Amino acid sequence: MMEYALEIKGLRKEYKGFTLKDVSFALPRGTIMGLVGPNGAGKTTVIKLILNLIRRQAGGITVFGEDVIAREKVIKSRIGFVLETPSFVEDAKLRDIAAAVAPLYERWDGTLFRSLISEFGLPLDKKFKKLSHGMKMKFSLALALAHEADLLVLDEPTSGLDPVFRRELLERLSGLIQDEGKAVLFSTHITSDLETTADYITFLHAGEVVFSLPKDEIHETWAVVKAGPELLNGKLRPLFRAIRETPHYIEALTSDIRTLKAALPAGAVIEKASIEDIMVFMDEGAAHV
Amino acid sequence: MYRLMLKDLRLHKRFVVGFGIAYVIYLAIFHSRANNPGAVSLFGAFLYAIIPLLIFTREDKFKAAAFNLSLPVTRKEFLQARYVLGWLVMLVLYAGTSLLTIAIPGTKLGLSAIFQVKLVLLVIFFMAVVFGLLMPLVVAFGFAGMIVFLVFCQVLGILFLFLANLFRPAISAAIRAIGEFLGPVQAGLGPAGSAATLVVVLLLFSYGSYRVCLFLFERKDV
Protein backbone atom coordinates (compact mmCIF):
# COMPACT_ATOMS: atom_id res chain seq x y z
CA MET A 1 0.00 0.00 0.00
CA MET A 2 1.26 3.45 -0.90
CA GLU A 3 2.25 5.56 2.07
CA TYR A 4 1.27 9.13 1.51
CA ALA A 5 3.08 12.13 2.88
CA LEU A 6 -0.31 13.55 3.74
CA GLU A 7 -3.70 11.91 3.71
CA ILE A 8 -6.94 13.66 4.57
CA LYS A 9 -10.25 11.79 4.87
CA GLY A 10 -13.72 13.17 5.43
CA LEU A 11 -12.57 16.37 7.08
CA ARG A 12 -15.27 18.62 8.48
CA LYS A 13 -15.07 21.96 10.22
CA GLU A 14 -18.01 24.22 10.85
CA TYR A 15 -17.91 27.95 11.36
CA LYS A 16 -20.80 30.35 11.46
CA GLY A 17 -21.53 30.95 7.79
CA PHE A 18 -18.98 28.49 6.44
CA THR A 19 -18.53 24.73 6.54
CA LEU A 20 -15.65 22.68 5.28
CA LYS A 21 -17.42 19.53 4.12
CA ASP A 22 -16.08 16.04 3.69
CA VAL A 23 -12.66 17.13 2.42
CA SER A 24 -10.54 14.19 1.29
CA PHE A 25 -7.31 14.07 -0.69
CA ALA A 26 -3.90 12.46 -0.56
CA LEU A 27 -0.45 13.82 -1.32
CA PRO A 28 2.03 11.16 -2.48
CA ARG A 29 5.66 11.39 -1.42
CA GLY A 30 7.99 13.04 -3.90
CA THR A 31 5.29 15.35 -5.25
CA ILE A 32 4.06 18.93 -4.98
CA MET A 33 0.38 19.65 -4.56
CA GLY A 34 -1.21 23.01 -5.16
CA LEU A 35 -4.24 23.80 -3.05
CA VAL A 36 -6.29 26.23 -5.03
CA GLY A 37 -9.63 27.94 -4.79
CA PRO A 38 -11.21 31.37 -4.55
CA ASN A 39 -11.13 33.44 -1.38
CA GLY A 40 -13.11 31.79 1.38
CA ALA A 41 -12.96 28.35 -0.25
CA GLY A 42 -11.38 26.81 2.86
CA LYS A 43 -7.70 26.56 1.91
CA THR A 44 -6.39 28.18 5.07
CA THR A 45 -8.85 26.16 7.17
CA VAL A 46 -7.46 22.93 5.71
CA ILE A 47 -3.89 24.06 6.43
CA LYS A 48 -4.80 25.06 9.98
CA LEU A 49 -6.39 21.65 10.49
CA ILE A 50 -3.23 19.92 9.27
CA LEU A 51 -1.20 21.94 11.77
CA ASN A 52 -3.77 21.23 14.49
CA LEU A 53 -4.37 24.93 15.06
CA ILE A 54 -8.11 24.40 14.93
CA ARG A 55 -10.23 21.45 15.96
CA ARG A 56 -11.97 19.31 13.40
CA GLN A 57 -15.53 18.12 13.83
CA ALA A 58 -15.04 14.96 11.78
CA GLY A 59 -12.52 13.15 9.64
CA GLY A 60 -8.89 12.25 9.96
CA ILE A 61 -5.48 13.57 8.93
CA THR A 62 -2.36 11.46 8.76
CA VAL A 63 1.14 12.61 7.91
CA PHE A 64 3.52 9.85 6.85
CA GLY A 65 0.94 7.40 8.12
CA GLU A 66 0.62 8.89 11.62
CA ASP A 67 -2.33 10.74 13.08
CA VAL A 68 -1.61 14.45 13.44
CA ILE A 69 -3.28 14.71 16.83
CA ALA A 70 -2.07 11.49 18.45
CA ARG A 71 1.52 12.06 17.27
CA GLU A 72 1.46 15.85 17.13
CA LYS A 73 4.98 16.59 18.34
CA VAL A 74 6.74 14.01 16.15
CA ILE A 75 4.75 15.01 13.08
CA LYS A 76 5.23 18.73 13.54
CA SER A 77 8.98 18.23 13.79
CA ARG A 78 8.78 16.82 10.24
CA ILE A 79 6.65 19.69 8.91
CA GLY A 80 8.00 22.99 7.65
CA PHE A 81 5.25 25.58 7.59
CA VAL A 82 4.56 29.05 6.33
CA LEU A 83 1.38 30.74 7.49
CA GLU A 84 -0.65 33.11 5.35
CA THR A 85 0.32 36.10 7.50
CA PRO A 86 3.75 35.65 9.04
CA SER A 87 3.35 36.72 12.67
CA PHE A 88 6.11 36.60 15.24
CA VAL A 89 6.84 38.77 18.26
CA GLU A 90 7.14 41.99 16.28
CA ASP A 91 9.80 43.71 18.36
CA ALA A 92 12.15 40.71 18.36
CA LYS A 93 15.15 40.63 16.04
CA LEU A 94 15.32 37.93 13.39
CA ARG A 95 18.41 36.54 15.12
CA ASP A 96 16.44 36.12 18.38
CA ILE A 97 13.46 34.54 16.65
CA ALA A 98 15.72 31.99 14.95
CA ALA A 99 17.57 31.32 18.22
CA ALA A 100 14.23 30.75 19.97
CA VAL A 101 12.90 28.39 17.31
CA ALA A 102 16.04 26.37 16.47
CA PRO A 103 16.28 24.32 19.72
CA LEU A 104 12.75 23.01 19.18
CA TYR A 105 13.79 21.16 16.02
CA GLU A 106 16.13 18.19 16.33
CA ARG A 107 17.15 18.43 12.69
CA TRP A 108 17.76 22.19 12.67
CA ASP A 109 20.67 22.93 10.34
CA GLY A 110 22.35 26.17 11.39
CA THR A 111 24.61 26.22 8.34
CA LEU A 112 21.67 25.81 6.00
CA PHE A 113 19.76 28.54 7.85
CA ARG A 114 22.66 31.00 7.55
CA SER A 115 23.02 30.20 3.88
CA LEU A 116 19.27 30.76 3.31
CA ILE A 117 19.41 34.04 5.22
CA SER A 118 22.30 35.20 3.10
CA GLU A 119 20.65 34.00 -0.12
CA PHE A 120 17.35 35.72 0.76
CA GLY A 121 19.18 38.92 1.76
CA LEU A 122 17.67 39.01 5.25
CA PRO A 123 19.22 41.28 7.91
CA LEU A 124 19.42 39.20 11.10
CA ASP A 125 19.84 42.24 13.34
CA LYS A 126 16.67 43.88 12.12
CA LYS A 127 13.45 43.71 14.11
CA PHE A 128 10.70 41.64 12.54
CA LYS A 129 8.30 44.60 12.47
CA LYS A 130 10.74 46.56 10.29
CA LEU A 131 10.50 44.05 7.44
CA SER A 132 8.25 44.36 4.41
CA HIS A 133 5.61 41.65 3.84
CA GLY A 134 7.82 40.00 1.23
CA MET A 135 10.81 39.94 3.58
CA LYS A 136 8.65 38.54 6.38
CA MET A 137 7.54 35.80 4.03
CA LYS A 138 11.17 35.06 3.09
CA PHE A 139 12.09 34.80 6.77
CA SER A 140 9.20 32.37 7.36
CA LEU A 141 10.43 30.32 4.42
CA ALA A 142 13.98 30.27 5.79
CA LEU A 143 12.65 28.93 9.11
CA ALA A 144 10.51 26.35 7.31
CA LEU A 145 13.39 25.12 5.15
CA ALA A 146 16.15 25.11 7.76
CA HIS A 147 15.14 21.99 9.65
CA GLU A 148 15.14 19.53 6.77
CA ALA A 149 11.36 19.10 6.88
CA ASP A 150 9.89 16.09 5.09
CA LEU A 151 6.59 17.84 4.41
CA LEU A 152 6.27 21.53 3.62
CA VAL A 153 2.86 23.07 4.27
CA LEU A 154 2.81 26.55 2.84
CA ASP A 155 -0.14 28.91 2.91
CA GLU A 156 0.16 31.47 0.11
CA PRO A 157 3.97 31.38 0.25
CA THR A 158 4.40 33.42 -2.91
CA SER A 159 2.17 36.32 -1.91
CA GLY A 160 4.11 39.55 -1.65
CA LEU A 161 7.19 38.09 -3.32
CA ASP A 162 8.75 39.67 -6.36
CA PRO A 163 8.60 37.57 -9.57
CA VAL A 164 12.32 36.76 -9.50
CA PHE A 165 12.28 35.39 -5.98
CA ARG A 166 8.95 33.67 -6.63
CA ARG A 167 10.50 31.75 -9.47
CA GLU A 168 13.55 30.90 -7.35
CA LEU A 169 11.30 29.61 -4.60
CA LEU A 170 9.30 27.44 -6.96
CA GLU A 171 12.53 26.02 -8.38
CA ARG A 172 13.72 25.33 -4.86
CA LEU A 173 10.49 23.47 -4.10
CA SER A 174 10.88 21.42 -7.27
CA GLY A 175 14.46 20.64 -6.26
CA LEU A 176 13.37 19.65 -2.79
CA ILE A 177 11.12 16.85 -3.95
CA GLN A 178 13.93 15.24 -5.90
CA ASP A 179 14.30 13.52 -2.55
CA GLU A 180 11.41 11.11 -3.05
CA GLY A 181 10.63 11.03 0.64
CA LYS A 182 9.60 14.66 0.79
CA ALA A 183 6.45 16.44 -0.35
CA VAL A 184 5.03 19.95 -0.58
CA LEU A 185 1.50 21.24 -0.15
CA PHE A 186 1.03 24.88 -0.98
CA SER A 187 -2.00 27.06 -1.37
CA THR A 188 -1.99 29.91 -3.82
CA HIS A 189 -4.06 32.28 -5.85
CA ILE A 190 -1.35 32.58 -8.45
CA THR A 191 -2.35 29.84 -10.84
CA SER A 192 0.74 30.23 -13.01
CA ASP A 193 2.75 28.96 -10.02
CA LEU A 194 0.72 25.77 -10.14
CA GLU A 195 1.13 25.31 -13.87
CA THR A 196 4.90 25.37 -13.55
CA THR A 197 5.43 23.56 -10.26
CA ALA A 198 2.57 21.39 -9.05
CA ASP A 199 2.24 17.67 -9.78
CA TYR A 200 -1.20 17.48 -8.20
CA ILE A 201 -3.92 20.04 -7.86
CA THR A 202 -6.66 20.06 -5.28
CA PHE A 203 -9.39 22.52 -6.04
CA LEU A 204 -11.60 23.73 -3.21
CA HIS A 205 -14.81 25.60 -3.72
CA ALA A 206 -17.19 26.72 -0.97
CA GLY A 207 -15.66 24.30 1.51
CA GLU A 208 -15.75 21.26 -0.75
CA VAL A 209 -13.19 19.48 -2.88
CA VAL A 210 -14.15 19.89 -6.53
CA PHE A 211 -11.27 17.66 -7.61
CA SER A 212 -7.91 16.43 -6.44
CA LEU A 213 -6.02 15.11 -9.44
CA PRO A 214 -2.63 14.90 -11.10
CA LYS A 215 -2.12 18.08 -13.12
CA ASP A 216 -1.66 16.13 -16.36
CA GLU A 217 -4.99 14.41 -15.89
CA ILE A 218 -6.69 17.76 -15.41
CA HIS A 219 -5.25 18.97 -18.71
CA GLU A 220 -6.44 15.79 -20.41
CA THR A 221 -9.99 15.79 -19.08
CA TRP A 222 -11.00 19.38 -18.32
CA ALA A 223 -11.78 21.71 -21.17
CA VAL A 224 -13.65 24.85 -22.09
CA VAL A 225 -16.13 24.39 -24.93
CA LYS A 226 -17.32 27.35 -26.98
CA ALA A 227 -20.35 27.03 -29.24
CA GLY A 228 -23.73 28.48 -30.09
CA PRO A 229 -26.84 28.14 -27.89
CA GLU A 230 -27.43 24.63 -29.26
CA LEU A 231 -24.62 23.52 -26.94
CA LEU A 232 -27.05 23.45 -24.05
CA ASN A 233 -29.64 21.33 -25.78
CA GLY A 234 -30.60 17.90 -24.59
CA LYS A 235 -28.20 15.45 -23.10
CA LEU A 236 -25.04 17.54 -23.16
CA ARG A 237 -25.94 19.84 -20.29
CA PRO A 238 -25.19 17.33 -17.45
CA LEU A 239 -21.62 17.06 -18.77
CA PHE A 240 -20.88 20.69 -17.95
CA ARG A 241 -19.58 21.78 -14.56
CA ALA A 242 -20.14 25.49 -15.17
CA ILE A 243 -21.61 27.59 -17.94
CA ARG A 244 -21.09 31.18 -19.03
CA GLU A 245 -23.67 32.58 -21.41
CA THR A 246 -23.26 35.59 -23.68
CA PRO A 247 -25.86 36.87 -26.16
CA HIS A 248 -24.01 35.22 -29.06
CA TYR A 249 -22.36 32.08 -27.76
CA ILE A 250 -21.98 29.76 -24.79
CA GLU A 251 -18.80 28.91 -22.92
CA ALA A 252 -18.95 25.82 -20.79
CA LEU A 253 -16.50 23.99 -18.57
CA THR A 254 -16.39 20.24 -18.64
CA SER A 255 -14.43 17.68 -16.71
CA ASP A 256 -15.23 14.90 -19.18
CA ILE A 257 -14.02 16.03 -22.55
CA ARG A 258 -13.62 12.43 -23.81
CA THR A 259 -17.36 11.69 -23.53
CA LEU A 260 -18.35 15.15 -24.68
CA LYS A 261 -16.17 15.25 -27.80
CA ALA A 262 -18.23 12.78 -29.79
CA ALA A 263 -21.53 14.53 -29.10
CA LEU A 264 -20.52 18.14 -29.65
CA PRO A 265 -22.34 20.15 -32.32
CA ALA A 266 -20.42 21.07 -35.44
CA GLY A 267 -18.37 24.22 -35.08
CA ALA A 268 -17.84 23.81 -31.35
CA VAL A 269 -14.38 24.89 -30.23
CA ILE A 270 -12.59 22.92 -27.54
CA GLU A 271 -9.77 24.48 -25.53
CA LYS A 272 -7.75 22.93 -22.75
CA ALA A 273 -8.85 24.42 -19.46
CA SER A 274 -6.14 26.12 -17.47
CA ILE A 275 -6.28 26.12 -13.69
CA GLU A 276 -7.29 29.77 -13.89
CA ASP A 277 -10.14 28.91 -16.28
CA ILE A 278 -11.39 26.29 -13.86
CA MET A 279 -11.16 28.69 -10.93
CA VAL A 280 -12.96 31.48 -12.71
CA PHE A 281 -15.65 29.22 -14.16
CA MET A 282 -16.33 27.47 -10.89
CA ASP A 283 -16.47 30.72 -9.01
CA GLU A 284 -18.69 32.55 -11.49
CA GLY A 285 -20.56 29.88 -13.28
CA ALA A 286 -21.27 26.94 -11.05
CA ALA A 287 -24.61 28.40 -10.08
CA HIS A 288 -25.76 28.59 -13.68
CA VAL A 289 -25.48 24.88 -14.42
CA MET B 1 9.78 22.50 28.61
CA TYR B 2 13.11 24.21 29.20
CA ARG B 3 13.39 25.00 25.48
CA LEU B 4 9.92 26.51 25.42
CA MET B 5 10.70 28.68 28.43
CA LEU B 6 13.92 29.76 26.78
CA LYS B 7 11.99 30.58 23.62
CA ASP B 8 9.65 32.92 25.51
CA LEU B 9 12.52 34.55 27.36
CA ARG B 10 14.46 35.09 24.13
CA LEU B 11 11.53 36.52 22.26
CA HIS B 12 10.43 38.80 25.08
CA LYS B 13 13.80 39.57 26.65
CA ARG B 14 13.63 43.34 26.15
CA PHE B 15 10.18 43.48 27.68
CA VAL B 16 11.08 41.13 30.55
CA VAL B 17 14.31 42.90 31.44
CA GLY B 18 13.08 46.45 30.86
CA PHE B 19 9.71 46.10 32.52
CA GLY B 20 11.03 43.78 35.24
CA ILE B 21 13.82 46.14 36.33
CA ALA B 22 11.51 49.15 36.31
CA TYR B 23 8.94 47.29 38.43
CA VAL B 24 11.52 46.00 40.90
CA ILE B 25 12.96 49.50 41.42
CA TYR B 26 9.52 51.09 41.69
CA LEU B 27 8.22 48.50 44.14
CA ALA B 28 11.41 48.48 46.21
CA ILE B 29 11.25 52.26 46.65
CA PHE B 30 7.55 51.99 47.47
CA HIS B 31 8.20 49.19 49.99
CA SER B 32 11.12 51.01 51.61
CA ARG B 33 8.91 54.01 52.39
CA ALA B 34 6.04 52.00 53.85
CA ASN B 35 5.44 51.13 57.47
CA ASN B 36 3.21 48.14 56.89
CA PRO B 37 5.14 45.22 55.39
CA GLY B 38 1.99 43.10 55.07
CA ALA B 39 0.00 45.58 53.02
CA VAL B 40 2.82 46.53 50.65
CA SER B 41 3.90 42.93 50.19
CA LEU B 42 0.40 41.90 49.18
CA PHE B 43 0.17 44.85 46.80
CA GLY B 44 3.52 43.77 45.37
CA ALA B 45 2.30 40.17 45.04
CA PHE B 46 -0.53 41.35 42.83
CA LEU B 47 1.93 43.11 40.53
CA TYR B 48 4.37 40.15 40.48
CA ALA B 49 1.52 37.98 39.21
CA ILE B 50 0.57 40.47 36.50
CA ILE B 51 4.04 40.73 34.91
CA PRO B 52 4.33 37.14 33.54
CA LEU B 53 0.76 37.42 32.30
CA LEU B 54 1.68 40.58 30.44
CA ILE B 55 4.47 38.61 28.75
CA PHE B 56 1.99 35.94 27.65
CA THR B 57 -0.55 38.46 26.38
CA ARG B 58 2.11 39.87 24.04
CA GLU B 59 1.56 36.73 21.94
CA ASP B 60 -2.05 37.84 21.61
CA LYS B 61 -0.99 41.39 20.75
CA PHE B 62 1.31 40.19 17.94
CA LYS B 63 -1.05 37.42 16.79
CA ALA B 64 1.84 35.00 17.17
CA ALA B 65 -0.18 32.12 18.65
CA ALA B 66 -0.59 30.33 15.31
CA PHE B 67 3.16 30.32 14.76
CA ASN B 68 3.91 29.12 18.30
CA LEU B 69 1.39 26.31 18.10
CA SER B 70 2.68 25.15 14.72
CA LEU B 71 6.04 24.39 16.31
CA PRO B 72 6.76 20.79 17.37
CA VAL B 73 5.24 21.02 20.83
CA THR B 74 1.96 19.85 22.29
CA ARG B 75 -0.43 22.35 23.84
CA LYS B 76 0.05 20.59 27.17
CA GLU B 77 3.82 21.15 27.07
CA PHE B 78 3.27 24.71 25.95
CA LEU B 79 1.01 25.42 28.91
CA GLN B 80 3.24 23.63 31.42
CA ALA B 81 6.17 25.77 30.27
CA ARG B 82 4.08 28.90 30.73
CA TYR B 83 3.11 27.94 34.29
CA VAL B 84 6.71 27.19 35.27
CA LEU B 85 8.00 30.34 33.57
CA GLY B 86 5.24 32.38 35.20
CA TRP B 87 6.23 31.15 38.66
CA LEU B 88 9.92 31.73 37.97
CA VAL B 89 9.28 35.31 36.88
CA MET B 90 7.07 35.98 39.91
CA LEU B 91 9.59 34.55 42.37
CA VAL B 92 12.52 36.40 40.79
CA LEU B 93 10.56 39.67 40.95
CA TYR B 94 9.61 39.02 44.56
CA ALA B 95 13.16 38.15 45.59
CA GLY B 96 14.62 41.07 43.64
CA THR B 97 12.17 43.56 45.10
CA SER B 98 12.68 42.29 48.64
CA LEU B 99 16.48 42.38 48.45
CA LEU B 100 16.49 45.84 46.89
CA THR B 101 14.04 47.10 49.53
CA ILE B 102 16.47 46.11 52.26
CA ALA B 103 19.40 47.68 50.41
CA ILE B 104 17.77 51.08 49.92
CA PRO B 105 19.28 53.60 52.37
CA GLY B 106 16.84 54.62 55.08
CA THR B 107 14.45 51.77 54.37
CA LYS B 108 11.72 51.27 56.93
CA LEU B 109 11.56 47.53 56.24
CA GLY B 110 14.46 45.41 57.40
CA LEU B 111 15.38 41.82 56.63
CA SER B 112 13.36 40.40 59.50
CA ALA B 113 10.24 42.39 58.58
CA ILE B 114 10.25 41.31 54.96
CA PHE B 115 11.29 37.70 55.31
CA GLN B 116 8.86 36.55 57.99
CA VAL B 117 7.83 33.01 57.08
CA LYS B 118 4.15 33.85 57.46
CA LEU B 119 4.42 36.92 55.24
CA VAL B 120 6.44 35.11 52.59
CA LEU B 121 3.85 32.35 52.47
CA LEU B 122 1.03 34.86 52.28
CA VAL B 123 2.70 36.70 49.39
CA ILE B 124 3.25 33.45 47.52
CA PHE B 125 -0.32 32.39 48.25
CA PHE B 126 -1.67 35.70 46.98
CA MET B 127 0.48 35.46 43.83
CA ALA B 128 -0.87 31.93 43.26
CA VAL B 129 -4.46 33.15 43.59
CA VAL B 130 -4.06 36.09 41.19
CA PHE B 131 -1.98 34.11 38.68
CA GLY B 132 -4.23 31.05 38.97
CA LEU B 133 -7.39 33.08 38.41
CA LEU B 134 -6.02 35.14 35.55
CA MET B 135 -4.27 32.39 33.55
CA PRO B 136 -7.49 30.71 32.35
CA LEU B 137 -8.84 34.12 31.32
CA VAL B 138 -5.64 34.92 29.44
CA VAL B 139 -5.70 31.51 27.75
CA ALA B 140 -9.34 31.85 26.76
CA PHE B 141 -9.55 35.54 25.88
CA GLY B 142 -5.98 36.85 25.69
CA PHE B 143 -5.28 40.40 26.78
CA ALA B 144 -8.98 41.24 26.84
CA GLY B 145 -9.54 38.53 29.46
CA MET B 146 -6.99 40.12 31.77
CA ILE B 147 -8.44 43.59 31.34
CA VAL B 148 -11.97 42.33 32.02
CA PHE B 149 -10.73 40.68 35.21
CA LEU B 150 -8.94 43.84 36.38
CA VAL B 151 -11.99 45.97 35.67
CA PHE B 152 -14.13 43.40 37.48
CA CYS B 153 -11.78 43.66 40.50
CA GLN B 154 -12.11 47.45 40.47
CA VAL B 155 -15.89 47.26 40.31
CA LEU B 156 -15.91 44.65 43.05
CA GLY B 157 -13.68 46.91 45.17
CA ILE B 158 -15.98 49.90 44.70
CA LEU B 159 -19.01 47.74 45.42
CA PHE B 160 -17.34 46.38 48.53
CA LEU B 161 -16.56 49.89 49.81
CA PHE B 162 -20.14 50.93 49.14
CA LEU B 163 -21.54 47.88 50.90
CA ALA B 164 -19.04 48.26 53.75
CA ASN B 165 -20.44 51.70 54.47
CA LEU B 166 -24.01 50.46 54.29
CA PHE B 167 -23.61 47.26 56.29
CA ARG B 168 -20.58 47.95 58.45
CA PRO B 169 -21.86 46.12 61.57
CA ALA B 170 -22.90 43.03 59.60
CA ILE B 171 -19.61 42.88 57.71
CA SER B 172 -17.62 43.33 60.89
CA ALA B 173 -19.58 40.50 62.45
CA ALA B 174 -18.94 38.28 59.44
CA ILE B 175 -15.20 38.98 59.50
CA ARG B 176 -15.17 38.34 63.24
CA ALA B 177 -16.98 35.05 62.72
CA ILE B 178 -14.46 33.94 60.11
CA GLY B 179 -11.61 34.94 62.44
CA GLU B 180 -13.25 33.04 65.30
CA PHE B 181 -13.59 29.98 63.08
CA LEU B 182 -10.05 30.12 61.68
CA GLY B 183 -8.37 31.11 64.98
CA PRO B 184 -8.91 27.79 66.76
CA VAL B 185 -8.19 25.85 63.54
CA GLN B 186 -4.89 27.71 63.15
CA ALA B 187 -4.07 27.22 66.84
CA GLY B 188 -4.84 23.54 66.56
CA LEU B 189 -2.62 23.11 63.55
CA GLY B 190 0.26 25.10 65.03
CA PRO B 191 2.56 27.37 62.97
CA ALA B 192 4.09 24.51 60.98
CA GLY B 193 0.71 22.88 60.36
CA SER B 194 -0.84 26.18 59.25
CA ALA B 195 2.03 26.81 56.86
CA ALA B 196 1.78 23.28 55.47
CA THR B 197 -1.99 23.67 55.02
CA LEU B 198 -1.45 26.93 53.17
CA VAL B 199 1.10 25.28 50.89
CA VAL B 200 -1.25 22.37 50.16
CA VAL B 201 -4.14 24.75 49.36
CA LEU B 202 -1.79 26.79 47.16
CA LEU B 203 -0.65 23.70 45.24
CA LEU B 204 -4.20 22.40 44.83
CA PHE B 205 -5.41 25.79 43.63
CA SER B 206 -2.55 26.10 41.14
CA TYR B 207 -3.15 22.58 39.86
CA GLY B 208 -6.86 23.33 39.49
CA SER B 209 -6.04 26.50 37.55
CA TYR B 210 -3.67 24.52 35.29
CA ARG B 211 -6.32 21.87 34.58
CA VAL B 212 -8.91 24.53 33.69
CA CYS B 213 -6.37 26.21 31.40
CA LEU B 214 -5.52 22.92 29.72
CA PHE B 215 -9.20 22.17 29.15
CA LEU B 216 -9.70 25.59 27.53
CA PHE B 217 -6.44 25.60 25.60
CA GLU B 218 -6.91 22.18 24.01
CA ARG B 219 -10.29 23.29 22.70
CA LYS B 220 -9.19 26.67 21.45
CA ASP B 221 -9.05 27.43 17.73
CA VAL B 222 -6.12 29.67 16.82
- Whole-number average pLDDT of chain B? 87
What's the total count of β strands of chain B?
A: 0
Number of domains of chain B: 1
CATH class of the largest domain in chain A: Alpha Beta
* Structural class designation of chain A: alpha/beta
What is the CATH architecture descriptor of the largest domain in chain A?
A: 3-Layer(aba) Sandwich
Oligomer: heterodimer
Q: How does the overall form of chain A come out from the CA principal axes?
A: elongated
> Which chain pair shows the most residues in contact?
A-B, 30 and 28 residues
Shape of chain B: globular
Q: How does the major sheet of chain A shape up?
A: 6 strands, mixed
Query: Care to count the β-strands of chain A?
Result: 14
Q: Average pLDDT across residues of chain A? A: 87
Biggest sheet statistics of chain B: none
- The CATH topology of the largest domain in chain A comes to Rossmann fold
* SS strand fraction of chain B: under 5%
Reading the helices and strands of chain B in chain order gives HHHHHHHHH
Q: Name the CATH homologous superfamily of the largest domain in chain A.
A: P-loop containing nucleotide triphosphate hydrolases
Describe the structure.
The complex is a heterodimer of chains A (289) and B (222). Chain A has helices at residues 43-50, 72-77, 94-101, 110-120, 133-145, 163-176, 191-197, 215-221, 257-263, 275-285; strands spanning 4-15, 18-28, 32-36, 58-63, 66-67, 79-82, 151-155, 183-188, 200-205, 208-214, 223-227, 240-245, 250-254, 269-272. By secondary structure, chain A is an alpha/beta fold. Chain A folds into 2 domains: 4-215, Rossmann fold (3-Layer(aba) Sandwich); 222-288, no CATH class. In chain A, the strands form 3 sheets. Chain A has a 6-stranded mixed β-sheet with strand order 6-7-8-3-9-10, with helices on both faces. The model of chain A has no long low-confidence stretch (mean pLDDT 87). Chain B is an all-alpha fold. Chain B has one domain (2-146, 206-217). Chain B has helices spanning 2-11, 13-32, 37-61, 65-70, 75-103, 111-114, 117-141, 143-166, 168-217. In chain B, helix 3 (37-61) packs parallel to helix 7 (117-141) and helix 5 (75-103) packs across helix 9 (168-217). The relative contact order of chain B is 0.12. The A-B interface holds A 48, 51-55, 72-74, 76-77, 79, 81, 83, 85-92, 96-97, 99-101, 103-105 and B 3-4, 6-8, 10-15, 58-59, 62-64, 66-67, 69-74, 77, 219, 221-222.
